[in-house]
From TrEMBL:
<dbReference type="InterPro" id="IPR050748">
    <property type="entry name" value="Glycosyltrans_8_dom-fam"/>
</dbReference>
<keyword id="KW-0328">Glycosyltransferase</keyword>
<dbReference type="Pfam" id="PF01501">
    <property type="entry name" value="Glyco_transf_8"/>
</dbReference>
<dbReference type="GO" id="GO:0008919">
    <property type="term" value="F:lipopolysaccharide glucosyltransferase I activity"/>
</dbReference>
<keyword id="KW-0808">Transferase</keyword>
<protein>
    <submittedName>
        <fullName>Lipopolysaccharide glucosyltransferase RfaJ</fullName>
        <ecNumber>2.4.1.58</ecNumber>
    </submittedName>
</protein>
<dbReference type="InterPro" id="IPR029044">
    <property type="entry name" value="Nucleotide-diphossugar_trans"/>
</dbReference>
<dbReference type="InterPro" id="IPR002495">
    <property type="entry name" value="Glyco_trans_8"/>
</dbReference>
Length: 190
């Protein structure tokens, strides 16, 4: 999903598909409709593309594992397929404590206390997503008066809409690892 594909990129994707005998679908998003939505210096309007993807793919599949581009999978995800999402819209991992505390101040009106999740890993029930019209509701929230309080617009809105409608996964499903961690932990040099 992108708002612009260069001919060079398309040729590369075509070669990749032939080389690995796979089908790769490219979806072009017209971003003009997103111009009114919040963005930040760090997060472009591309953060909203997954909302379109959830809506579109709900016509083809019942569940989907969404992973941010910076996520690395280090083990089996088989256990996710055993989750009972019949009455929950998603399985997610709670964000770290430092973020939880800040969210309580920033999004106080939404009462997300202790239940704020990081949206980099979301196993979503697309059937319930579509039935609850969550893409439409997300865009309404993003265009509403509360939008100024959204530091992470797409993630904040997902947390608001999915409040009490998620299963919390264990931390290993979405562990944030930064260079700061590497610099502090010298054990790997022994």
């Amino acid at each position: 999903i992108c708002d612009l594909y260069s001919p060079c990129f398309v040729k590369y994707i075509e070669r990749l598909a032939v080389q690995h005998h796979i089908k790769i679908s490219l979806y072009l998003i017209k971003v003009e409709s997103l111009e009114v939505l919040p963005q930040t210096k760090v997060w472009s309007r591309a953060m909203y593309f997954r909302l379109f993807a959830f809506d579109y793919l709900s016509k083809k599949v019942n569940t989907l594992l969404y992973l941010d581009a910076d996520v690395v999978c280090k083990g089996s995800l088989q256990d996710l397929l055993q989750l009972d999402l019949t009455e929950k819209i998603a399985a997610v991992v709670k964000d770290v404590d430092s973020i939880q505390n800040k969210v309580n101040e920033r999004l106080r009106a939404f009462n997300l206390q202790g239940g704020y999740f990081n949206s980099g890993v979301v196993f979503v029930n697309l059937k319930l997503w579509k039935e609850n019209a969550l893409t439409e509701k997300a865009f309404l929230l993003l265009a509403g008066k509360e939008a100024d309080s959204f530091k992470y617009p797409d993630q904040d809105v997902l947390n608001i809409l999915l409040q009490d409608k998620v299963i919390f996964l264990p931390r290993p499903y979405n562990t944030i690892y930064t260079i700061k961690s590497e610099l502090k932990d010298k054990s790997h040099k022994k």
